[in-house]
Write a structure and sequence with these properties.
The structure is a homotrimer of 476-residue chains. Helix content of chain A is 49%, strand content 8%. Chain A is an alpha/beta fold and 476 residues long. The first copy, chain A, folds into two domains: 345 residues, Metal-dependent hydrolases (TIM Barrel), CATH 3.20.20; 102 residues, uronate isomerase, domain 2, chain A (Orthogonal Bundle). In chain A, the strands form four sheets. Chain A has a four-stranded parallel sheet with strand order 6-7-10-11, with helices on one face. The first copy, chain A, is globular, with a radius of gyration of 23 Å. Chain A starts with 17 loop residues before the first helix and ends with a helix. Chains A and B meet through helix 4, helix 6, helix 15, strand 9 and helix 19 of A and helix 17, helix 18, helix 19, helix 20 and helix 21 of B.
């Protein structure tokens, strides 16, 4: 049986109506090759600190680390071990990349119609030049083809960075990180790439009083050179680290919380909680730990007003919902499940204090799409608030359409933060930006075709959403 | 005035764009006549246990029992009595089916643009061969026409079962049912139809401690032949009934709860609640009854792992919201109103314990469409979880479009459970399946037209959604 | 640089597909010029009580009072002072209308693709005959043009009332208002316009026990001529005012609450709360004030059953979310942010008691679009319940499309209350009604094109939604 051809439709994601499609093309064309601004990724900076770094083999690059992909295979009963996902107990997992690839290919049908399938096809076709569809029969041929490419210097991380047209790429880094790779890139590499860290203090501001928190506090103390003995020294250590991140090029922080609650605790009570937490587990986890996290969001907003780091908030994900999987394979395996969030009441204390300040830029993300039109778009009336692009499960053709359709009427286009690819899957970056640009062009084309906007305004909005919005919002 | 013609557009529910419409037709055509798999209905099995059973007159068949229809008429001030809906106090209601039909016809305009109107037109046209629109003037003519048909052997339940191309049809039956009709169909009828029961234990697991619960427990004890004196004997009785249902062909259970909370109670406390409830009303209804229901969902999942019955969960409906109507006319009169649900946190205990098991298939339904993309599609990463089709108010052209648009990107097509018609209105069954198939074809055609999938993958998904998914999910 | 032409596409808001567009046109055409029924506005009745009233200059008419517009400019860092918005401390604000207009025009780009931008363009083009796009360069020319128009008698409020084809317009008035302007219009003006008040008692039923509440109670006592010494006299005063509003032409009441909770308090407890509140702040604001508001909704429904005033409920808006702005500039400045609401459980006590009564018409509005399909459409099964049109942020092309798409299948078209423009921006009224009519025509055209309805039924529904629904629902 002959392999099926893999082809990307040049008009993909545009409305099939010929009039709208024509307008969408017209809007997309001048923006499709703009440089990529990547203000929020989970790419490993080590890929860029050494000139001869490599992505490894096709399975190491594409299958094993991508939880979007492994979660789907797992849902159909394929053990994560068969996909090479390491076990926390160092138990046996599949090590043969060709076997992993074959398992993946045999089940590739599962990704039909999903954004993962779309991005994979985009990477196969546009990045690697594969021209047949992946399935059980073409698995080996495609593996060989990609493996060959990955061995060539044209497919090193730095080469792809250039080929993808990346202008700047921000990684995500814990507060206690020494940013060694960033330091190496900036000081020693002589390389022109623009790789920047992002300050992510989740481990020291959430779950106060747990043993893991105390470990993170020790690491923070060590990294900052400040002995953390009380809340005041904790705050100084955080300020010191933010300062260091800024020196290493950071322009933003990132905060993951279950609920977007903000609150200011009484200094005395705060100090007593903090000291107790340093010594022993705090008594009332469900209350004091939440209040502490809520308080720290306020503190972070205060610091952002002082040091100018843009504050990103990613709330509403119940992390590691599947304990069997996280105990066996660690965190970030595709089982972070969204919950309802309440921005209107949760963020009120923070916005009361900092929402009218031009010094703060607060970029809000959500997995609860109901909040798009109900809360997030109305909240952009605050000068500090910008809306992040569709996140995670919603970074998809349908998800982007829902986002624009629900936020743009109330927020306008110029309160949006542009696009984040938010990925650890490096070869998917151009495909993800391209989906965003195509979906924006399509939304705008539909507005033009229905007389809501004219092409002049649509063209300006298109340019902004494709490129300017991310640069401006993230102060890049 | 000449009566208006009733015609079904052969391209109905397909995108008007000619390119998409063509693709939709191509996907629909080979699937439109596939056998109907009906894993979840409220059809009365008595219709099939006797060869000479009849649907009665047109009003008895179409108007009086269908709460989708009576709720709309009632909303415009028409008393349920005028539609022949019996009163709990045996008070007078309209008995003349022609008067009921005339009231219905005079108000038929109210159903314009609703799925009920669509299904009715489909049944009139495709099942009964009516070719004029129903209104006050055509009421008698159409009544006479349908009445004539219903008297012919070609319109007996068994004949329509065959004509509709039903492959299997599952009814919904209380835990204490003797399944007499099912027994009759299987043992004595000599009829080839495949009618199966579904185990629905709501009455014995919800509202613990109420007089109605105690009555249901007595019935359960009688049916199982097990004296229910404590929690242990209660569980044995349930296991016995499940075993009996399986012998009668059941492959699934069904559970209706207000909230999808799951929880495991301490055995000692559980036993004390249970014993108290057997004797007197439990003290704290709002707490212990909920916890008991939550516990029983866990127990049911455990039993499903043991006996292989697929577990269906229908949460989030506030049943009998209108007490005036339910006191006067009993339950299921169109006043079950949805509430918000939280699957992510509610189901966590159950999924922690059974979600990774291949022995369990848990089919989740929702009336809270916000959970489609926020919770349900992400939860399909659990091997046990499948998503049921749009339920109740959402089993409609717009509702199916919203469902596919929001779940298919994250869940893929192969974590969906196919279609359920979920109806007591037998003549609407082919129309409902046809809506689903058309809407699936249309969604897939739009993906193909926008370059998200190719026709090969769309064709496979279409076949699965039309037929294979329900068979596979329900182990039929 | 030549100014860009401003043109309104005659087919705007219609689906670009030629077949659907043709049907939409056919449905729209006979309804586009129907009289405007405006049962819920925030227009100032003073505009109509004097024959020589004027809208003032273009900035006074269009920019300063419209919080839809000022909130967007404020979000981009433009102080409300620069837009002429008065300060509560009488501090300095921009007084030069041409400077205000220039600031507005320089930032007009921000409104691209928003309903505000659409309505402004509609008013510029259709009401004022402006034919160039507003921007920094055309600002003065357009200001001069509009200023000239506003000085002519053809642009007086009464003249525009006629030119817009308004049949009836209801204002919103506090319970203690003497309705002086309404009295003047009815008794002395000799003018044919139909301006009616709406009874809005928010200040006397919410926030019980605050100093503001006590002030409002005193005003209510004075207006009604009833000394309010206890709950009984409070109720009599309200009844008296409702009677007076009815004499002045009112057919409806309006109620804004944070949550749509309803509840009946024990008379003794109610009396004790009320008496305490008259004297001092009630102790437990978060509980008793909420219960009092919930109780008063029940009382208002009871009064509506007695006096026939249609009851409008606007829940779910967190009013004046930004205290810095409301302290500086007063309420209604664009910072009322929606929250989640629960109609199903909240309204149950009210619906239990009055939901089946034909004497009550309860029009429900929401800012929480999730409730459209989940709660509101199902609740229309109650004879008393009608659904208000999309409110506030959702009164927009996308918002109306979402509304119809989610409610019409379950509620049908004849349980909808038609359109409300709900505006204080008088020149936007024809544009807003036109958007509604176009979006309804488009929704119906799509149903016809996909075989869900025929043109006869669509035409009837279109006429109802355009005109009859509001008249009938509001008993006008």
């Amino acid at each position: 049986m002959a392999a099926k051809r893999l082809e990307m439709n040049p008009d993909r994601l545009f409305d099939p109506d010929p009039a709208v499609r024509g307008l969408a093309r017209e809007l997309y064309e001048p923006n499709k090759d703009r440089p990529l601004v990547c203000p929020h990724t989970h790419v490993d900076p080590n890929l860029f600190s050494e000139p001869n770094a490599s992505f490894g083999n096709p399975s190491e690059m594409i299958v094993t680390p991508d939880h979007y992909l492994t979660r789907m295979l797992y849902s159909h009963g394929i053990p994560l071990e068969d996909l090479g996902v390491p076990r926390t107990d160092c138990g046996k997992v599949e090590r043969d990349p060709r076997k992993i690839w074959q398992t993946f290919a045999d089940n590739y049908q599962l990704f039909a119609g999903t954004p993962t399938g779309y991005w994979l096809n985009h990477a196969f076709s546009e990045v690697f030049g594969v021209d047949v569809k992946l399935d059980g029969e073409t698995a080996t041929e495609i593996y060989d083809h990609i493996e060959g490419k990955l061995k060539s210097p044209e497919f090193s991380p730095r080469a792809l960075y250039d080929r993808f047209g990346i202008e700047v790429l921000c990684t995500t880094d814990p507060a206690a990180s020494d940013l060694g790779s960033h330091d190496a890139i900036r000081k020693y590499s002589g390389w022109h790439g623009n790789i920047r860290p992002t300050f992510r203090p989740d481990k020291v501001v959430n779950n106060v009083g747990t043993p893991e928190w105390r470990t993170s506090i020790m690491e923070l103390g060590r990294a900052s050179g400040i002995e953390i003995a009380d809340y005041g020294s904790f705050v100084r250590a955080l300020e010191q680290r933010r300062q260091y991140f800024r020196q290493m090029g950071a322009t933003a922080t990132d905060h993951a919380v279950l609920t977007p609650c903000t609150d200011e605790m009484h200094p005395g009570y705060l100090e007593s909680i903090f000291k107790k937490a340093l010594g022993v587990r705090v008594d009332d986890v469900s209350n004091d730990t939440r209040r502490f996290s809520a308080h720290m969001l306020m503190e972070m907003a205060r610091m952002s007003c002082d040091d100018g780091l843009v504050m990103q908030l990613h709330p509403g994900s119940y992390r590691n919902h599947n304990p069997a999987v996280s105990e066996r394979h660690g965190p970030d395996r595709g089982f972070d499940i969204p919950v309802q969030v309440d921005f209107t009441q949760g963020l009120k204390p923070l916005l009361d204090k900092y929402g009218n300040s031009k010094a703060l830029t607060l970029v809000l993300f959500t997995l609860d799409e109901d909040t798009y039109s109900r809360e997030l778009a109305p909240l952009t009336a605050y000068p500090a608030v910008k809306l992040g692009p569709p996140w995670w499960f919603h970074d998809s053709p349908n998800g982007i359409a829902r986002y624009l359709e629900r936020v743009a009427e109330t927020a306008g286009f110029y309160n949006l933060a542009g696009f984040n690819d938010d990925t650890r899957a490096f070869p998917s970056i151009p495909g993800r930006h391209d989906v965003w640009r195509r979906c924006c062009a399509n939304y705008l084309a539909q507005r033009v075709a229905t007389g809501v906007m004219d092409m002049e305004d649509a063209g300006k909005a298109m340019e902004y959403l494709s490129y300017g919005a991310a640069k401006e919002t993230y102060r890049l």
